[in-house]
């Protein structure tokens, strides 16, 4: 690390970057620009932070988001003035909704230029509105503004927060490390900066106060007495939560459904129900009539869980989640425990003598397993479809790696897929607001933060939204196998009620096209393979796993045949 002292701009930037580093924020995702040159100069001279140069601003923001998913620490976005920070906004919204840490540091022009028609100047303060937990607006660096105050305020913004924060800092010329026309930095300011850099501690220490679970005796009693219980495992935060959920499933012995984002599909014993979205499976669960539903985590892909099961006759619906916001679209949860699943399991203690109707539970599990087998039989193995693509990936992805199923059709296919993923495969999703943009960039950020290879399965429309991120993938040392399922448009609308109004749906919603991605892969110097059959997909994927590195595999999926498979599976009696 080095103190830049040629002018106040680079001196303040040096303190800002170093204070963030001292608080554990050491990964910076930099969007190029001129107004943020003081910040970039400080980063260039601080050898204890990671710097990721990103050409595309929206992709940079999702890349930082993926890093946060992997590490639990905010990625720090650094940008110039104007529309740059507006391009971060979709990822800021996702971070807000998914309660993920993210920091934006935006450079701004002097306040007198706002509203003056000065170039590349907008009102940046409070730009993210209600989607931002906190904002810090800093003036142009001023020798009369104490450096202790600057460091303390930046330190506060760096504390662990379950959502995005925004630091906006104004700069006058000069923006490069050269002496200002007004002369060198004053000696008192320079001495204060040297004292700051001589010390190595954060400006303020914030001891972590760990909250404990509330008294769970009443919940324990409900769980023990339940004759017909159902365990539902949604998106989980970390390994501690996943271990706690798996242990609780074993201890209860209830029928259990695992959402794809739990990373536990096929890993919770022999009482697992593979799907809540198929009408027949849903009817079986409703016929079982659970009196207690214990939901661990939130954000289930299955809309039928919220639309039907939670509107059934369960007496108690217990939700365990540390999330800040209300997470109950059906408005039926009547016991909320605000805690991580791992902490909940530890606090719960051992549940002995659980008095459940084992015969009813076993009957449900066996009937649901028969539905799964029937669906497998109804899925042709000689022609590509979303269910078969998911199955091929599940069968081949190695344990300890990561899977990113893109939004829309892909994640739904994996949510209903079999066989189980290999042990230790972590599933990463963007289900805060479920946008189709930024999926590849998020996958890359996760790969960089976790040090794991990621297999990203993304639809063609999602890929068109995130095409620029192929440049970042190509330049990164992290490994992302990008599997683009090209069914020539937004075909999810052919599965929704709007399909009955073709004059509306086509082309304005389905957006059909005739593109392939071979030239895009070549443009960004990424190895490319195309698969038109199940065997070609499996061969290309195994080759990608064996050879290592990032690459693109494009799966050419006939939308009509895929829709036939979808309808055949859905109509299974």
From TrEMBL:
Domain Thiamine pyrophosphate enzyme N-terminal TPP-binding, residue spans: 14-124
Pfam families registered for this protein in UniProt: TPP_enzyme_C, TPP_enzyme_M_2, TPP_enzyme_N
Enzyme class: transferase
GO molecular function: 2-succinyl-5-enolpyruvyl-6-hydroxy-3-cyclohexene-1-carboxylic-acid synthase activity; magnesium ion binding; manganese ion binding; thiamine pyrophosphate binding
Residues covered by the Thiamine pyrophosphate enzyme TPP-binding domain: 428-555
Role, per record: Catalyzes the thiamine diphosphate-dependent decarboxylation of 2-oxoglutarate and the subsequent addition of the resulting succinic semialdehyde-thiamine pyrophosphate anion to isochorismate to yield 2-succinyl-5-enolpyruvyl-6-hydroxy-3-cyclohexene-1-carboxylate (SEPHCHC).
Pathway: Quinol/quinone metabolism; menaquinone biosynthesis; Quinol/quinone metabolism; 1,4-dihydroxy-2-naphthoate biosynthesis; 1,4-dihydroxy-2-naphthoate from chorismate: step 2/7
Cofactor(s) this protein requires: Mg(2+); Mn(2+); thiamine diphosphate
Entry's family note: Belongs to the TPP enzyme family. MenD subfamily.
Record keywords: Coiled coil, Magnesium, Manganese, Menaquinone biosynthesis, Metal-binding, Thiamine pyrophosphate, Transferase
Organism: Desulfatibacillum aliphaticivorans
Quaternary structure (record): Homodimer.
CDD domains recorded: TPP_PYR_MenD, TPP_SHCHC_synthase
Protein name per UniProt: 2-succinyl-5-enolpyruvyl-6-hydroxy-3-cyclohexene-1-carboxylate synthase
The protein's Enzyme Commission number: 2.2.1.9
Entry's cofactor comment: Binds 1 thiamine pyrophosphate per subunit.
Entry keyword Ribonucleoprotein: no
HAMAP family: MenD
Coiled coil: 351-378
InterPro entries for the chain: DHS-like_NAD/FAD-binding_dom (IPR029035), MenaQ_synth_MenD (IPR004433), MenD_middle (IPR032264), THDP-binding (IPR029061), Thiamin_PyroP_enz_TPP-bd_dom (IPR012001), TPP_enzyme_TPP-bd (IPR011766)
GO biological process: menaquinone biosynthetic process
Keyword Aminoacyl-tRNA synthetase attached: no
Membrane spanning residue stretches: none
């Amino acid at each position: 690390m080095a103190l830049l002292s040629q002018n106040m701009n680079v001196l303040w930037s040096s303190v800002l970057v170093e204070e963030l580093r001292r608080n554990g924020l050491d990964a910076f995702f930099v969007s190029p620009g001129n107004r943020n040159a003081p910040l970039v100069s400080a980063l260039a001279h601080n050898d204890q932070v990671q710097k990721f140069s990103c050409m595309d601003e929206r992709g940079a923001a999702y890349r930082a988001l993926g890093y946060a998913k992997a590490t639990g620490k905010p990625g720090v976005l650094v940008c110039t003035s104007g529309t740059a920070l507006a391009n971060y906004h979709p990822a800021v919204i996702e971070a807000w909704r998914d309660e993920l840490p993210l920091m934006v540091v935006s450079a701004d022009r002097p306040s007198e230029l706002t509203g003056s028609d000065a170039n590349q100047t907008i009102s940046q303060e409070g730009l993210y509105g209600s989607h931002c937990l906190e904002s810090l607006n800093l003036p142009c660096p001023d020798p009369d503004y104490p450096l202790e105050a600057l460091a303390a305020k930046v330190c506060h913004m760096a504390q662990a927060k379950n959502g995005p924060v925004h630091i906006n800092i104004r700069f006058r010329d000069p923006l490069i490390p050269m002496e200002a026309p007004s002369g060198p930095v004053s000696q008192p300011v320079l001495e204060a900066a040297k004292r700051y850099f001589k010390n190595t501690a954060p400006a303020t220490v914030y001891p972590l106060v760990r909250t404990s679970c509330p008294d769970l005796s009443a919940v324990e009693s409900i769980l023990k007495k339940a004759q017909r219980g159902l365990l539902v495992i949604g998106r989980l935060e970390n390994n501690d939560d996943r271990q706690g959920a798996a242990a609780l499933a074993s201890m209860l012995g209830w029928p259990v459904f695992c959402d794809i984002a739990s990373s536990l599909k096929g890993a919770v014993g022999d009482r697992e129900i593979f799907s809540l979205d198929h009408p027949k499976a849903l009817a079986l669960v409703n016929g079982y009539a659970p009196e207690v539903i214990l939901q661990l985590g939130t954000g289930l892909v299955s809309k039928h869980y919220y639309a039907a099961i939670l509107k059934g006759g369960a007496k108690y619906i217990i939700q365990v989640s540390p999330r800040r916001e209300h997470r109950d679209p059906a408005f039926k949860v009547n016991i909320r425990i605000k805690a991580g699943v791992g902490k909940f399991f530890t606090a719960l203690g051992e549940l002995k003598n659980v008095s459940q109707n084992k015969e009813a539970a076993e009957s449900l599990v066996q009937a649901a397993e028969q539905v799964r087998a029937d669906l497998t039989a109804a899925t042709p193995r000689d022609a590509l479809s979303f269910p078969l693509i998911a199955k091929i990936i599940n069968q081949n992805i190695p344990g300890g790696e990561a899977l990113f199923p893109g939004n829309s059709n892909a994640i739904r296919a994996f949510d209903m897929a079999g066989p189980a993923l290999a042990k230790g495969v972590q599933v990463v999703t963007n289900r805060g607001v479920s946008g189709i943009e930024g999926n590849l960039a998020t996958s890359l950020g996760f790969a960089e933060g976790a040090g794991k290879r990621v297999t990203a399965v993304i639809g063609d429309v999602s890929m068109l939204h995130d095409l620029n991120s192929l440049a970042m993938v190509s330049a990164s040392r992290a490994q992302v196998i990008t599997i683009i399922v090209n069914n020539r448009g937004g075909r999810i609308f052919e599965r929704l009620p709007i399909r009955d109004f073709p004059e509306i749906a086509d082309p304005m919603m389905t957006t059909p096209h005739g593109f392939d991605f071979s030239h895009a892969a070549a443009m960004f110097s990424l190895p490319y393979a195309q698969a038109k059959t199940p065997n070609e997909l499996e061969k290309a994927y195994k080759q990608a796993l064996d050879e290592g590195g990032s690459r693109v595999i494009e799966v050419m999926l006939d939308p009509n045949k895929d829709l036939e498979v979808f309808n055949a599976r859905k109509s299974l009696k």
